[in-house]
């Protein structure tokens, strides 16, 4: 398994700092979910006019871009045109930087549509995206997020799209915390469709000042209640050799530790699991 860090966890860092420190801390790659003041990296010079410099930083550090994490919502028909346009820009970046994965969300309108109807929307959007030049050379990973945190429902979406280029990004916090699934239940349902994994820990502490709406708050890996060690053990047993991303959400939760503390602590914690 390879370790990646997300730029969600270091919203103040420029791209050179991100690469330098990721290498220093012992990560194998960086997942770009925005950079500094812009969540859409396709609007940043580091990924457009100055992409050759970014490529040079990759080569110098020996790191990989583990994924480009987009805001594309494939099950939302109102955003389909923008989703396809964004996908086209991301494909160009992925080709320049040898990126294998692009993350997308499912989303959709669960108040007016069934899971099956939303899955149909997802298939239609992905059909358009996969018709773009270069799209089938990339793995499009749908996160277990929003309306798709239950593994059986996420499986409906993946099976409906029915393409070897579309698989699952398993966010363990969502399946365990939101949908109350054990890691074994999730893996039994999603199986080999899991291509990429997000982990972070959380504690149910509804009276804490930083508790989220559901009463949980994020804490350092290994100090909360989510089954992270069990997840890693099961993935190893099943021969998973893909990316494990520490999703440190400093951008959304500024009260969390600074990346200079959180990222090396994660690498040390993960090493202790082996």
UniProtKB/TrEMBL annotation:
Entry superkingdom: Archaea
Keywords, alphabetical: Isomerase
Entry keyword annotation includes Isomerase: yes
Single GO MF annotation: isomerase activity
Record domain Xylose isomerase-like TIM barrel: where: 19-270
Cross-referenced InterPro entries: IolE/XylAMocC-like, Xyl_isomerase-like_sf, Xyl_isomerase-like_TIM-brl
PANTHER family: HYDROXYPYRUVATE ISOMERASE, INOSOSE DEHYDRATASE
Protein name (database record): Sugar phosphate isomerase/epimerase
Annotated organism of origin: Halosimplex pelagicum
